[in-house]
Amino acid sequence: MLLLFMTVSCAVFGSPAAFERKEVCYGRDFSLPYEYIAPIFHGKVYLTPSDGRSRMLLIDDGKLQVEDPRIRVGVTSVRFTDLRGKDDGMISVSYDGRRRYDVVRLVILACAQTVTHVSGETFTLDVPRDAELLEFSSSGLSDNPQVLWNRTDPQTNKGGRGKLRRNVWEISRVTQSDNGYYTLRKNGKVLGRRIKLSVEEDVRYYHSHPQELIVIEKPYDGLWTVRFLNKDQTDVHPLAENANLAREDGWSRIIRDRYRLINRGIEIYPVESSDAGEYQFRDPEGNLALIAHLEVERDDAPTYTYVGAIVGVVVGMIVCCCCVRKCCCKKSSSKRDVSAPAPAVYNHDQNQPAGPSYSAAPAPDYSSLPTNPPVSREPAPTSAWPPVYNPVNIDVNPHQPEVAAPGGQGAAPAFSLNSDDLSSDAEPKFELKGLSFPSAPPLSSDVSFSHVYTSDKLNFL
Q: Fewer CB within 10 Å, N- or C-terminus of the chain?
């Protein structure tokens, strides 16, 4: 019979091996699925808490097995009311009392409206006229909340930091110890409004420069413990304990002359770069109330300083370029002066074969250079033989200017004839006239040159 019932139940309601996840808010109700309620189900219902407590038998054959007024068993329902954190767990059933099947995973959530305040502010909560209880718990799933206020029985109030004023619950200068859940209940402890208070530390930012004076203000009046965390967040030093500067060895010597406690807070003068970091203010209970960030900014140079530096660099580069260019020009000029050859000298070779031959080169203007002394012109002795002209070799250095012949451009060139070339005194002498050589170079027989220009066009025979 039992086997047949299990078979029919599995076919109709599904296999109990697959459980259902059910999420319910704190203080709300939960109903067990009807397939596990008498008269359909005559087995056992268990709860295994998730907090590690042992498994509990709740219902056996439709009868309640625990003394818990929150569990209500009816003819057609099983209802769990005012759920708490201890109700979180796995609900399982057994058909024969030996093998269990998980059917519902009951999850209790700390549902509440979140209200955020900064440390030192005032927290207020409106209390409706039908409210009878105000409970507080630091945890959202607490089983034993603290009663802050009871309308019908003021003797049950367990105190607290707040007070009820004209249907408003008020807490002044909240701290992190006030963090938690505030629950209002109506008649019969029915859950009403639920508030989650979150108190955060105040955060302030200070900016200063070296050698200035700065005051880091405390959150509000009270005895504060101050800790200093450097900018790199590697070292923590106690700065003040119960309104007195700390006396830690080493650190106290550093701050002794520059830190001072005043009514407003902590005065630092003169400020140094090592003062940058976090200043944490905590109350005697250790609640963090304030974090003050101090940033010490370096003094930046004025804009005109950077402009002047840039202009100076540009001018310096220009001067350097000019100096380098001038030096290079001087070196180049000195090299040309050293490598320049000597002025051109014209050599009249005395031993040349018969026939006029001489060399010539282009003659630029040499009017500014000194001229050679004039060559005497004497009539040559006459002879029965035809006149013989000695060749004239004119060596010209192409790199040096030649000297013009005396008398200007139109003067006739003078040739120096060796007396050995004349046969006798009686031989006739010839004198060249009418030939004009502009810019005749100076003649010399003492210097030899590598460049010799020879032309047969000057042969007059």
A: N
Residue 12 has pLDDT above 50, yes or no: no
Task: Yes or no: say if 219 and 175 are a contact pair by the CB < 8 Å rule.
Answer: no
pLDDT tens digits, residue range 313-335? 787 788 778 877 777 766 655 55
pTM of the predicted protein model: 0.61
User: Rg of the Cα trace of the chain?
Assistant: 62
CB atoms within 10 A of CB 382: 14
Maximum distance among all Cα pairs of the chain, rounded to whole angstroms? 181
Q: Is 56 helix (H, G, I), strand (E, B) or coil?
A: strand
Q: If you search the block for the tokens 């002066």, which residue do you land on?
A: 337
CB 450 within 8 A of CB 347: no
Residues 6+ apart with CB under 8 A from 316: none
- The answer to whether residues 296 and 208 touch, using CB atoms and an 8 Å cutoff, is yes
Euclidean distance between CA atoms 134 and 186, whole angstroms: 9
* Chain centroid to CA 84: 52
For residues 251 and 256, give the distance between their C-alpha atoms in angstroms, rounded to a whole number: 8
Tokens 């498994």 correspond to: 55
**Residues 245, 270 contacting (CB under 8 angstroms):** no
Question: Nearest-5° angle of CA 121, CA 154, CA 186?
Answer: 80
Q: How far is CA 97 from CA 45, 60, 91, 93, 147, in A?
A: 10, 10, 15, 9, 42
Using one digit for the tens of pLDDT, what is the confidence trace for 263-311?
999 999 999 999 999 999 999 999 999 999 999 998 665 555 656 778 7
Query: By the 8 A CB rule, do 293 and 203 touch?
Result: yes
CA distance 257 to 196: 46
Angle, CA of 171, 173 and 174, to the nearest 5°: 70
- Cα–Cα distance for residue pair 153/429, rounded to 1 Å: 167
Q: Among 343, 422, 340, which Cα is nearest to 382's? A: 422
> How far is residue 214's CA from residue 271's CA, in Å, rounded to a whole number?
7
